[in-house]
Amino acid sequence: MKNSPIVLLTDFGTSDPYVGIMKGVILSRAPKATIVDLCHEAAPQDVRMAAFQLLVSAPYFPDKTVFCCVVDPGVGSSRRAVWAKTKRHQFLAPDNGLLSWLPEPVVEWRTIEAEKLRLHPVSGTFHGRDVFAPAAAALASGLSAAKLGPKILDPKRIPFPSAAKTRGEILCVDHFGNAITNLRAGDVLPGTELRFRTEKIGPIGKHYAERPVGQPMALAGSSGFVELAVRDGSFADRFGVRIGETVESA
Which CATH architecture fits 6-147? Predict the structure, then answer.
């Protein structure tokens, strides 16, 4: 039986061995597993950023992919570990809202409680290794989700920030310093100029080369959301961007 792909999303970074240890646990239990690193540079403890990364990434993975997501500021506390299933995929994550913005509706939720799946003793600071990686390996190998734990109806949810056609906010900042907003590019009227603080930016472009080097700009990003950028530079560094700041029509 072929293993389902396992996709890892964490805020662990790559300078420490944590991601490698998770992979070691997975391969110890599912030696033929295909493991994909989605991202390990989510801002530490930034659950919303991880939720957004799942939103824009999950549609590109094959059916039956298992997403193992560990951005977990509440690790070791009473927060639950949860499993969610959509029509196409399975997701494992702390019950902290990380799975709030999935691109498809969730059809079933469960808690992850099966003691026999876990590494023991379970660390109070590394559930990625002791709880989530073993569960991901088991699911990828064909384990029935019913064996994880009971169904639940009350997962923690984070509402997606509402946006109007003329007003939104900055959701996250990517590696290049582009400030990604919650404005869907298709919802913004053609020719609309945006304002960030006192800076006029726009109208929304299609690619970075439309502006001179060093000039701020707005464009429809690959995720389908409007992003604010500086040609060959960092918008976040230039303006000292803060998550949640307002972007509106000029």
Answer: 3-Layer(aba) Sandwich (3.40)
